[in-house]
Predict the structure.
Amino acid sequence: MAEAIVRVDGGSNIGMGHVQRCLALGSKLKKNGAEVLFICQKDEAIRKKIEQEGFEVVALRNNIELKEDLRDTMNTIKNHAADIVITDSYALDGRYLAEVKKLVPLLISIDDLANTSFPSDIVINQNLHAKDLNYRSSTGKTKFLLGPEYALLREEFSNLSKRRVNEKVENILITLGGADPLNLTPEILIISGKISRDFNITVIMGLFFENKSEIKKASRRIGKKVEFIYDSHEMSKIMFASDLAITGGGTTLYELAASGTPAISFCLAENQRKNVQGLNDYGTLINPGWGTEIDGVELREKVTKLIDDFSSRARMSRLGRELVDGRGIERISKIIETYGDGR
């Protein structure tokens, strides 16, 4: 039985995207018989989330120096005789990865930036623009899995039924990820409330939402029914029940595409810019700009126009499902199997 260790970071500043995609891959490895252990910086909410998914967690000290991080991670790898290590953290550089690679037969790095030369055996970048980045291998042996066909989505997105696009928009989903540091959800609710169309709203509140009271206060000021869902484990069902979504620019965009849910997406961080713009150009979403520069009138006009334009929503839905079939984890798993368990 293979032993796999996942070194990942998440939290109120980073969000949940890295953790969610590692949980998706970790769950697949576990289903295939591997023992999977997570290593991450100490955060009670992250620990609970990972443990709820059935995994053991080793917590590193918060704000740990990279040298100490490497030492502690390597000790854990040795103690567990790991065969596979998966990394997903912007804090880890090429030297860190090279030291880890010395200890394991198979090193897998999940990446978005291509800002180092990789000693890893496999590098995964699920983003639409991934093939345009300057990926380099320090060994000449790295297998690069690039693009949405390798989207790291949970199994619930792998076998979705045919999507029916409603002519009338009945429900709009607002989902900004694991945290809302810019306090955008109340603003989006108020703007949505000014749209003179009849629809309900579903708001997803992530683990690190610190503005729940403000969101609920805003919901009471608008003349629409608002449902709140907290850190759901059934996002595919929620997305299927939504006629369009207002969202941030993280992994959620690929979940929305896989479920065929048209989206209006804001850039919430620089590392989302190419992702959001690429999917805007492809046609699965509309990007009104940065979350820090929301224009209430413009957003209201764009949402209203999309509500009234059934053919555009149908086209966005079709393009999303053609781009992301939800079987990325399955493809990655088969490639990992070709390496054996490393022993």
DSSP finds twelve helices and 15 strands in the chain.
